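1st attempt posting a full record on here, be nice pls
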Amino acid sequence: MKKTEGLDFLIQELPRQLEEDPATGWFRRVWYLGSTRCLDELCIHDGVLSARVTPHEVHRHDHEEVHLALSDNLQYVTSGDSSAGELPFDLTAGSLSFTDSRVPHTFRNTGDTPVHYLHARWRKDAEPPGGKQGLRFNHLRGAEGGEHPGAVEVYAGPSRYLSRLHVRYHVLSTGGVIPLHRHDHELLLALVEGSLEILGKTVNAPAFAFMGSRVPHGMINRDAFPARFYGIELHHS
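the predicted structure (as tokens):
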């Protein structure tokens, strides 16, 4: 995909038909690669891992990243010093993980059927003052979640590139509305279950939306079932 510049808004429903790569066992579909108003690079892709595939060795790079498991049997692996060895985290469908990508990491399919995931990574050319080093968390969402606006907070604090990373898990009931609003931070929304109407466009899970800083946006759940989604706020100094 061609690298583009200055993303303000993108909403995308992900294909439900899982496409495998018979040669490598790792199929990726890049939806965006480029800059935003606040980030020097943002990459968003979804991928499919064939049964028992580990796509690459443990490695590191100059980004922060989040992985959202859209299937069971996805395992995210980090490693510390040589004495610690591998530290695996089993992610069920709807689980979210974050890592500073300088921490050695990889991921794998531990099952006998393909798995689907959504991935986003970002970086800036300069780190903000006071950023933490090596921040990472792993979260398995609760069965109940939280009714908006009392959403479940997953993480709130600084990271290497962000003055504040704020992740919340939302459940928006049938007929629920988040009114049109805007804010100074950028937002990545990851829809896990149900459907949402965002600025007149309806998407069904799995789907994602990116809203740039100061871009007006709101959401409505017109479906007969609750919509469950993560709101990943990317705050900048």
